[in-house]
Amino acid sequence: MAERREKNGRAYRKIVITGGPCAGKTTGMTWIQTTFEKMGYTVLFLSEPATEMMTAGITPGRCSTPMAYQQFQMKLQFEKEKVFERAAEDIAGADRILHKVLIVCDRGFMDNRAYMTEGEFDQVVRDLGTGREELLDSYDGERVLCAEATIDPLDRLSDWVRPDEMHQTFN
How many CA atoms lie within 13 A of 131 on its CB side? Predict the structure, then answer.
């Protein structure tokens, strides 16, 4: 069997969806899933590590330092993406029939940079045994969705924004 590879040399494609609150990430992911499944793709969604960690009780305030939290989060992101990549390779070649697979990441490595200094970010990347270019090259494309949420009255803003993203809002 001749193995079909995507342009990236892999049997799957991987993209990251990122953006602030109310940017349309969830709506976009629903559209991506529907559209790509109609085109014959198996779509794998990698959930946002920060949400998982905070839901599980691992928060920046509970960790010894904000940097320690970022290290844990980036390690989780790194390992989850590796697992999803291995699963995508397996699914793509299952039953000797090459299936089309798309991995969609809810946020990516570079999102963590907003919470760290340049030096801290580079240190965590080195600790992961990789580099910025390798991290960026692991995605086939980055799509940024931008939107402005209008909240009226303004004192209801906290009902619409997660506490860890308050700094990303604008009005």
Answer: 2
